[in-house]
Amino acid sequence: MNLLAAVSICEAIKEITGLNSQIKWPNDILLGSKKIGGILTELNAEMDAVRFIIIGIGLNVNNDKKSLLSGATSLREEKKEDIGRLDLLKAILRSIEGNYFIFQKDGAHPVLNKWRHFNLTLGRRVKISSHKEQIEAEAIDIDTDGALLLRNDAGLMQRITAGDVVHCR
To answer: Are 82 and 69 in contact (CB under 8 A)?
Structure first.
């Protein structure tokens, strides 16, 4: 659902502003090299059933440059005009609904392929920090669960489910 939400946000930003946003695995939305938002998901599930999923989306929409953190931007800063937040929200919700229907009908692959189209991480060397370790490797792909697949310098594959990602080059 995190990947589905990221795809939906990028589609909605394109629809409303014409800007091409991209996804940095696992949950950042960027314009160029600057962050405009992020996604957090909370899941309550048992082995055989999902009780609920909460998707939290934060986007810098009409923020001015003074209020933004270093390395961040807003849609208004990039577009040079105010963006209708309600129109953007409606577009995001429509896109989430449409992508969810695709997911229900055809499974994860169509949404994952859309994610690959918007991604900034695959094919790049990355450093991933988690509470356990720090890894530097090439980001190769994502699997059907949204885990990042890495190939280290020895050629071994590793599956990463969480961590902070820095693009190296």
So the answer is: no
Contact yes or no for 83/16 (Cβ under 8 A): yes
The terminus-to-terminus CA distance of the chain in angstroms comes to 28
Check: pTM over 0.90? Answer yes or no: yes
* Token pair for 3: 């990947």
Is residue 71 domain-shared with residue 110, that is, in the same domain?
Answer: yes
Instruction: Please write the tens of the pLDDT for every residue from 101-144.
Output: 999 999 999 999 999 999 999 999 999 987 778 999 999 999 98
The C-alpha angle 159, 167, 63, rounded to 5 degrees, equals 115
Q: Which two tokens stand for residue 134?
A: 């720090």
Q: What is the pLDDT of residue 6?
A: 97
Domains identified in the chain, total number:
2
Looking at residue 104, its amino acid is: Q
Mean pLDDT of 46-70: 94
Q: Which domain holds residue 146?
A: 125-167
